[in-house]
Amino acid sequence: KIYTDKGNFALKRIPATRGMYFLHSMQRLYQSGYHHFVPVYPAQDGRYGILEGHHIYYLMPWVEGSNDRDTILKEKQMLRETARLHLLSSKEVEVDPEERLKHYEQMKQMWERQEEHLEQYITLAEKETYMSPFSLQYALYYHDITMAYVYAKEKLKEWMEETKEHKKVRTVQVHGNLALDHFILDRQGMGYFISLEQSRPATPIHDLVPYFAHSLATFPKKADAEIEQFTYYMGHFPLKKEEKLLLHSYLAYPGAMYETVSAYFTRSRRYSERQFTKKLQRQHWQLKNIEYFLIQPNSKNNEGL
Prior knowledge:
alpha+beta, Phosphorylase Kinase, domain 1, 2 domains, three-stranded antiparallel beta sheet, disordered C terminus
């Protein structure tokens, strides 16, 4: 934060390898009609970023947010702005059907290899004379993990079937790191993004999957608030059928649990037994929260997926 006689400013820096793309992204968004982000001020010579060493430095106004006491309101505002960002920047781009098929086969094969590894690990756990706390917990969770893989692969296959004849795909300018910390409300209640450094062209789910995965990484709960948020987003920017299928697939995929189990049984002991067990428990809570979010029968986002 910089204090001057002309006001307060935020001087930020970004690696030069990403800096120019970031500044061009900001300009493209502004030209597309999306203005709800904190702008970058030009230097006296007209440049929006100054290269110094391996970094680009840029200047933004320092914007004081409101007290943000109403988190629910702020989340809704952020998702509405995300939907507007996606809507105003959306466009259809050509896609190679062979590349799509290649991606599908790679994902399917990787997930099937992981399933094989998990089956080997459960065999090792069941051979223990006295199961360790982690092994016992893994045995209890094994069915849920395998069902998550089945669901993720099923939705991925449905996505492939839905899109195999499509020659174009919808892309948007995603935020890239969607979080309440990167969004503010001004004193009039208007919402603005304050960090677009990871913004890039991608499909909408590249914002939605990480956001909801993080939101659901909590203690066990009914994810009704997240279902309402998703429905609110959809009201402003409806996802296509293939986008919803891919969102379901990637969100259901239990990759974090696989990494934890694999690290434990391959003796990559970065954590103690207690830490491993606690980590797996929290990941299972997230898996069950995601399950509720995706397939809760009475949820509004279940219809048509």
